[in-house]
Amino acid sequence: MVLSIASPVLERSDGKARLSARVRYDQNDWNLFYEVDDTYGGFLSAARADAFLLPVLPFAMMASRTDRDITISCEAPLSRRLYHQLTQYYLPVLCKNISYYRPVRIEAETTDEALPCAGRVGTGISGGVDSSYTIAKYMDAPEGCYRLTHGIFFNVGIYGGYDSPSEVLLEAKARKIAADTGIEFLHVRSNTLKEVYGKAHAPVVPAIFMGGALSLQKLFSVYYYSSGFSAAESHFADEDAAYYDWLNTQSFSTENTVFYSSGIEATRLEKVRFIADYPFTWDNLSVCLTEDQHSGNCGRCAKCTRTMAELETIGALDRYAREFDVAAFRADPAYHWGYVLLKAWGGDSFCGDIVRAYKESGRRLPARAYVGAIRKWIRRGGTTKNRAREKVENRN
């Protein structure tokens, strides 16, 4: 079967510029797009299929489990470096090591001709720990060619729609982070995630966001993709492509844009220690998993709980009192610390580091935390894992 990617089309109207491409496979007919303010329209290029290949690549590899001999056919040329890295390394390696991926072919003309590029340096602004670490590290980098110039807020519609209160709040925080750190703000709206996958499943996130960055490879010569895990934790994991971001970033780079796996050199707790000294994070840290975020961090989900525990462990939680309900966290150790303990017992490296650092500081977790962890373990059916979590391969 053939998954076809038509030549991209660039349209400009009503103060916006949109780069789009029709993608067809079986019963699917998607018009995928990236949209920016018209002032950035000149940095979008219809001359490459790169930005549309990456978002559909995981889909094709998953679909090939049942639909054998899938070929991705691109009408527009691909960057030769990208094509080589994908076909010679990325596809063979992942298809041997990720259980739900099978080989696909890529057919396209290739070119090593570099596009005109403004030579800027970018990263995504999510407000999370990993993103904040990248911004804090590179906003004043001594080497000018690596100093951060732009922060992108990717609006992919996962928090209740593109114009939902949640997206409006998160965009406002991203704008404030850019203003506070002296970098230019860039808003990119795209439907690649919603159309192809529906939700932000962890195995597809790198391809979605680095594909978005490649829509602007006439702007960026360097792009920092904030890694969720350290190099020491790297392995081929079915549940999360961030575990092998070292491979993602190397494979997705082109003649124009080089990706770096920012943060791969640090553990999550080391990142939290680092960003806690940067005031721009105190009022803007956004880590929540809840889709309805128009009131900010919920303070109850797994990521809110873990982040508050990290900040408490290093003695910095009170700095973030405008982002988290600090009193509620401290009043309910059975719920919050119970979760951290449960995940630590199950081998979660983030939570294991939190518990270890907390104890090494000479403090003891209250008995209610252990009771809470045991109760959670029982409710989950004798496991530390969340059995209700939806897997990406269920999408196809």
Short description:
The chain has 396 residues and is an alpha/beta fold. Helices cover 37% and strands 18% of the residues.
Please report the total strand number as a whole number.
Answer: 13
Low-confidence stretches: none
Q: Spell the H/E element sequence.
A: EEEEHEEHEEEHEHEHHEHEHHHHHH
State the CATH topology of the largest domain.
Answer: Rossmann fold
Task: Assign the structural class, choosing from mainly alpha, mainly beta, alpha/beta, alpha+beta, or little secondary structure.
Answer: alpha/beta
CATH class term of the largest domain: Alpha Beta
* CATH architecture assignment of the largest domain: 3-Layer(aba) Sandwich
Shape: globular
Proportion in helices: 25-40%
> β content, as a range?
15-25%
Compute the number of structural domains: 3
Question: Overall mean pLDDT score?
Answer: 94
Q: How many DSSP helices?
A: 13
Biggest sheet descriptor: 11 strands, mixed
Radius of gyration: 21 Å
Span of the ends, CA to CA: 15 Å
Report on this structure.
With 396 residues, the chain is of the alpha/beta class. It folds into three domains: 2-111, no CATH class; 120-262, Rossmann fold (3-Layer(aba) Sandwich); 287-379, no CATH class. 37% of the residues lie in helices and 18% in strands. The strands form two sheets. Strands 1, 2, 3, 4, 5, 7, 9, 10, 11, 12 and 13 form an eleven-stranded mixed beta sheet that branches. It has a two-stranded parallel sheet with strand order 6-8. α3 (129-138) packs across α8, α9 (302-313) runs parallel beside α12 and α11 crosses α13 (367-379). The chain is globular.
